[in-house]
Fold each of these.
Amino acid sequence: KLVLGIETSCDDTAAAVVDEAGNVLGEALQCQREVHLKTGGIIPHVAQQLHRENIEQVVKEALSVSGVSVNELTAIATTVKPGLALSLEVGLDYSLKLVNKYQKPFIPIHHMEAHALTIRLTNQVEFPFLVLLLSGGHCILAVAQGVSDFLLLGQSIDIAPGDMLDKVARRLSLIKHPECHGMAGGKAIEHLAQTGNRQQYTFSLPMQRYRNCDFSFSGLQNLINNTIIQKEKEEGIQEGELLSCVKDIAAAVQHVVAIHIIQRTYRAMLFCIKNGILSPKHATLVVSGGVASNQYIRKGLQALANANSFAFLSPPPRLCTDNGVMIAWNGIERLRAGLGVLNSTEGIRFEPKAPLGTDISNQVEEDS
Ligand code: ATP
Ligand code: FE
């Protein structure tokens, strides 16, 4: 079995060919980050235009590196939800053209399901496992019970951690920082935090009175903004000029984000064990998504897992951020499970918003 995966849900145009054993035969990725960094965020029609310019070449490159022709593919898998409408549209349109031209089965992919299942490509891990997805658009705690069977324990009630880190990075003008050239916001904060002193600032933790697994980052973002404004006043500098203390702020921000995530994940662990959803003998915590490539957050979660006798697994950073491999792999998983493989493309549409799994977040709150 050979699957071509195509991803365009946000700002990366990506494709890959993966076989049944999880071998990545070929992959290609065109990242739009540098363009969007200049405009201070993703402008959807700009992202769409870039996807249109790049998709054909990216898919061709993935196929040619893998030495596989479209005819040899078992199926084509493409992200159809959730994501930016204009971005999803490009990947879906292009895929359907290929599907119809070569008469191939089509596998519509849920982007967050793909992030969650990536770990099964890199490691041997059986269902069920606890999965924490930390990215630019999402913050989700769920139990993966099967390829397309998730229990949603909690999620961010406002913005995602990656979004928050990007906004803070923008507010601190990190794009101008000599040490952070071309880095995504979260990456720049991680880099600067390494040589900062987090004890210079303290930000209070969100949601201390909510006994559930939800997250919140926008109040925190406001607190951080206010601190930056105050500091600018003290130093007598204008917004947009670099503060001398950016490293210390970065370290404190990274720390509070990590602790918030760890607290909510701890609650999810307790809930799953107490309710027999996971067995204490072989419980596993899987962490993925772009923010999961942050070593500080990863280490914190690893320590949490160790303390609670959970195995800790996370894909390598390049598979944590958006890529074509995870989409192709999700296609393989769905083929093997006999799930969602379509032989007609009629009525297939993209969906900008799409929940992951069955929402049981109310039960978490009642239980604790
Ligand atoms: P989603 O998957 O929710 O649709 P997305 O695909 O845009 O969102 P990803 O590509 O998984 O998100 O992750 C991008 C985010 O990860 C950005 O917000 C970026 O700042 C953040 N990020 C990347 N590297 C790091 C890092 N080392 N530390 C913290 N955050 C990081
Ligand atoms: Fe993503």
Amino acid sequence: METFEIELESFLKTILPIPELYEFLLIAQNLSKKRGEFLYFAGGVVRDYLLKTLYKKKIEKPKDLDLVLQGNLKNFLEELLKKVKGEILFESQFLTYKVKIYLNGKEFLIDFITARKEIYEDIAKLPKVFPSDFKDDILRRDFTINTLIIGLSPPYKGILIDLINGKKDLERGLIKPLHLNSFVDDPTRIFRGIRYKVRFSFKFAEEFFLALEKCFKKEALKKLSATRIANELRLYLNKEPEEKLKELLETTFYLNIFEEAGIKVKKKNFNSLIELLSELRDELNIKEREKFFLLGLLNSQFLEQALRLGFTEFELKEIKKNIDFINKKYLKDWKKLSLWEKIKVFEKIPPFYLLALAIYFPEIKEEVIKYFKEYKKIKPELTGNDLKNLGIKKGKEIGELLDLLKRKRIEGEIKTKEEEKDLVIQFLLKKSEN
Ligand code: CTP
């Protein structure tokens, strides 16, 4: 075990997202000292601090802080929350607590973790956890670069502890699992390793490939649940910079991870998928974006595999139904359809399915993009009420007229409210002639 002294105050000032947290940490530090329980920072926050200060990498401030206590965390938090305004929001089966604290009118979330040992009894299943000391807590982790800890209270206050050469691997830019069974225990670590490699432009250590081989042999990725696979892939989309998405997907593909997890993806889709995600960033909500991302990865010949990405049987049926709808009825004459007819087809398909179709059928891609960015937003200026005031009475007729106004706008035939009114008047005249 190697130890290094660090400037605790400067460490805290570098990592803390808001200065008010400094006061909070002083209280937590004093409490752990009084109780004789060792409190420390671990994981991403320490790794990123070292990358920033020692190796001058450009790293964003951490979004979450992982504070670990070697001791009775529940009692510790109860005592802490008598001194600081806050509440426990969530207690997990893994001896962790999400805590909300209030500082000068601001709210802040902190993850508190009990130093623990993990025992994996089943391949790719969640582990059993037991409270333990900081050494076991280090040894349960995914990669050597995540094993560094910085002590906040005695006996290691202001000390960086490097139990297994994590600092050296950080320096060399190596993604190395702690042991060769690591991905059999928890195959989600493969996705995490890929994210770290791509995020920091690091390299995989030899041990990464050896652990991967072992994981493939035991078919551990096949045993990983669909929910957990989908969660990991969503992190590619939500946690990593957009410009890294292609490399993340390609790395996963070349390492044969998708195939081993029982998912047939189509590498040729990656470019369109990334293009559409970026073009339509503001047009989809987060849930639609995630679903589109996952569906868009798939090879449309093997859509049942959507089940491996957490889609339900019902959703799978809907995907197939929409594919049949557009494929059988429209695609063979797609070029002959008018713009309006195409829009009518698009309107019948829910957004994320439509986008997935734009990937599976490249001939509709450009129009789908335009549909989301332009056509979908075009609306007549006249409202249903305006039409009523102009003398249209029946609900059905109002609907048809609004549709006609929209169509004329999309086709560029009318541009102003006045022109819309003229069209309605013509409609009324024609009707009275009949
Ligand atoms: N961890 C692990 N195995 C997992 C998930 C997490 O060993 N399957 C450990 C890692 O040591 C990691 C820590 O738990 O450092 C915290 O996990 P998380 O917050 O997801 O990652 P960070 O290290 O904070 O990294 P980042 O948020 O920057 O991705």
